[in-house]
Design brief:
The structure holds two protein chains of two kinds. Chain A is mainly α. Chain A is built from twelve helices and seven strands. Chain A has a three-stranded antiparallel β-sheet. A two-stranded antiparallel ribbon of chain A has the order 3-4. Chain A is globular and about 80 Å long. By secondary structure, chain B is an alpha/beta fold. Chain B is built from 14 helices and 14 strands. In chain B, the strands form five sheets. Chain B has a five-stranded mixed β-sheet with strand order 10-9-11-8-12, sandwiched between helices. The chains are: A mainly alpha, B alpha/beta. At the A-B interface, helix 2, helix 11 and helix 12 of A face helix 1, helix 4, helix 6, strand 10 and helix 7 of B.
Chain lengths: 401, 340
Amino acid sequence: MADSSVDARTTGTRPSTSRSFYDKEVQAILWQVVILTIVIGAGYYLYSNMQYNLEKRQIKTGFDFLSREAGFEIGESLIQYSAASTYARAFVVGIINTLYMAAIGIVLATIIGTVIGIATLSQNWLVAKLTEWYIHILRNIPVLLQIIFWYVVFLNDRFFQDARGAEPLFGDVFVTIRGIYAPIPLAHVGWTAALIAIPVAVVAVWILSAWAKRRQTLTGETFPTFWVGTAVLLGLPVIAWLAFGAPWEFESPRATRFGLRGGGRVTPEFMAVLVGLTVYTSAFIAEIVRAGILSVHKGQTEAGRALGLRDSTIMYQIILPQALRVIIPPTTSQYLNLTKNSSLAVAVGYPDLVSTGNTTLNQTGQAPEAILIMMAVYLSISLGISLFMNWYNAKIQLVER
Amino acid sequence: MMGFKRTLAVAAITAFSATSALAGASLDAVVKRGELICGVNTGLGGFSIPDSAGKWTGLDVDVCKAVAAAILKDASKVKFVPLTAQQRFTALQTGEVDILSRNTTWTLTRDTSLGLNFAGVSYYDGQGFMVPKKLNVKSAKELDGATVCVQPGTTTELNLADYFRANGMSFTPVVIEKLQEVNAAFFSGRCDVYTTDASGLASIRKNDAPNGKSEDYVILPEIISKEPLGPVVRHGDDQFFDIVKWTLNALIEAEEYGVTAANAADMAKSSKNPGVQRLLGTTPGMGKALGLDEQWALRAISAVGNYGEIWKKNIEPLGLPRGVNNLWTQGGIMYAPPAR
């Protein structure tokens, strides 16, 4: 009798193999098929419709325009570009400008946001109130408005002098309506070596901190990672620079009939977008950091104090590592927002991807292609940031042992 | 950003709209709607600019009004849609506007691969340079190293690069989409030079110079390009294209015959000139050929005046000489094919 009492489910022999329409699994699969069909169908409809209309209106299509000569100039570019370059290169200039803006913006917004976020929890009443107002005001004004506000400020002759006949602020540094001009080092192997030394130093510090951490886990001995790391970061480039002849030749901006020429230069368009994006995003990051810190139980601080640790040690060794788990996911969204918001640069004429892409679109008339390229690039950048941040997030999560 | 959004929007419309672009679709749509949608500049005095009451005036605006008078029998049935240089072609291609009358230069690429048709020339223009007087520049050849304000997506932007390359000079462009913001950038001293069509420079100098000090700015003598400006329609509706083309021609021919807004109705009755009789519908045939009634040109001329009147009203106040835009009988090149 024991045999006959075995449940059919565990033996895998069900009375009937045909599945009912009301089976949950069957319904789930059916719904997925239906939704997939709708999505593909809608996509196909849009695509074929576009093709039909483009053909009907005899609008040229295809990507062969990318290899044609662009014929327009771009105000600022980190790579060689002239009107004789191709449309493809104009796109690349825009992509690099966008990435450049996003990278600097993300770094600055993170630093400012973290400092402000911590400051809102300060015991000092004034500091806490000021930073609170910083957050409330800046994150509630649309970022486009902020960018335009800064652009108007930078172009105002009440704040900045005319570039024609400008007086230097000090040395050969000029602050004018057309931006900040400063001497830049002339190309020399010494400067190149110093530049290469920077990533080398970063890797060295990373290895050093990993070593210090392991040693501390094993022996309990601490190592002044911060100070040694800073010394390496600053020292290595300087040593490289000294080793390769310590060049000290600069190209200074010089006055011409049409304002200043030569030297290094930051344009007001770049500054307006950078300041606008950074300040706006930093307000959000500050809120995230504040929330992250508050999410760590008060008992942690009290336990740290009971052990006689200093407040800064408690913050950096106990609170922040735990808070990071709460901080990282929403901060990722802010990084993505900042990157995408950089497309607002077009409003003040900073030649980002949207700006050069729009110009290309207009000169060639090939709207779907140009828009497609822009969308693909933003998607790739955003997915790249997401992947990196997800990896970092996974790395700092609690590892249960 | 608005520009980008609009571009996206029209791209979406391209994808979604299946209905239009049949033969005669543009005209059908205009008649059915009872309104002509006309793309104009966002605010260029003399060509298209809204006054304090929101009424649009200017040469480009009058062309649209004339077309509305010809087709819809009412010059007021026009909706004006202000477009930036970057938005204009996409807006026309996707059917957001029926006609683009926005100081737009006729070029081969635009006429072909953009899928557009230029319906003649309403203004023969050329690209010039404007600089502050205090820079003491006498010729465009002295502009090596200058910072130049320009609008993106224009022929101006391309001619500018060509001109500096051809003359072995360099420049730094400041490229801003919104006309009002380029103006502000130039007048604040962000740029040394402003470049656009000579008519545009005159208009901007007169209307936008800070504190009305237009005398502080000079337009350099060099004209570096040919910029024939005219109304544009989409490919795909030849009848509508014909109507726009011949409405413009009718305005020019009316000046030749001395038909004005004031005397057009009388001349239709009393003129003994067979050319005038054909134009104004006293001798039937022209309207039928276009698929309109015979009073199409009479209405257009009565509504906005002949080409000379339009010029006097809109362009003369900018202080621009008529020059090549004079009739061919007056030493210019404004020449309408005969309406017969």
